[in-house]
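Sample intake sheet
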Amino acid sequence: MIRNLCAIFLGLIAASVFARVSQAQTPAAAPQHWQTEEGSFVVHDFHFHDGETLQNLRLHYTTLGKPARDANGRVTNAVLILHGTGGMGEHFLWPMFAGVLFGPGQLLDSSKHFIILPDDIGHGKSSKPSDGLRMKFPKYDYADMVKGEYDLVTEGLNVNHLRLVMGTSMGCMHTWMWGETYPQFMDALMPLACLPVEIAGRNRMTRKMIMDLIESDPAWDGGNYKSEPMNGLRAAMDVELLMVSAPLYWQKENPTRDEADAFLAKSLAERLKGVDANDMIYAFNASRDYDPSPELGKITAPLMAINSADDFVNPPELHIDERLIRKVRHGRFVLLPISDQTRGHGTHTLAAVWKDYLAQLLVESRGRSSN
């Protein structure tokens, strides 16, 4: 049973779109050591989409490598990688991602690339409701988060061009928005595990369930709780776990009732550590007005969108990507078949599964930065 639990813990840290699930399945082995730099960039008087203003918006980041510039001063090697709901940039340093992409001779070799891993608004070490404002924190949305990413890249890190923008889940959705909002700013785009359309249907319903379950707990007290509303959080995290589930793999790794029960109990206990209910509500609510579908024709950079056939969040039977990718002039959609390697929604973090497609995209987009 211990072997099985360790295996699924390792698989799900990569597989989870949400940091709490990732933290629950942290592998026993420490991540590879990377030469990184951390910092925070403060945007003064940041104006949010809903009209609110935050006097000092802190945007935390982790970077690897150094920027390189051409004769015209344009950065040629910067890569922006965007995390999922509840996540943070440093989660990309685990072996199943960084160990496949950032090492010597690998596709995004950190000795040759300047890799930027932000913590989005409301996440990680960036400004968030739990800093003190609670439910008085500005009601940020994805447009605010993308604007914050842009401010960090351009003003905080002095990067004027990106070789690649890629993201997982929420970061995947932000990648579509980058392509529309700043179409000349990048050479290539790789959205992993999302759809370029309004969040509706079951996807919206599960997100609404998570928010409602927290807010319906009397202990939540309108966001003014003295201790976390645990009943609401437990229920919300059960829904969250289902969203990132991988039935075939989970059946293989937990083939008995006792093993399944043990995994669920341990996973929930670990995921509850360090979570904040208001932060969680804000993070899920941020997707409320996401819908890049009307503006997909604005994307000019080569784009490779990847989903997995066992993704509960973005089920292939909707056929949304196949239909909308036609609006992207240099767009391509890849649906990964279910295999022993896929892990449901979280396949987005298992770089070994899709790295060959990234290699194709980098070749196809080579030279765009000099145009």
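Comment: Residues 142-156 form the longest helix (15 residues). The longest strand covers residues 36-47.
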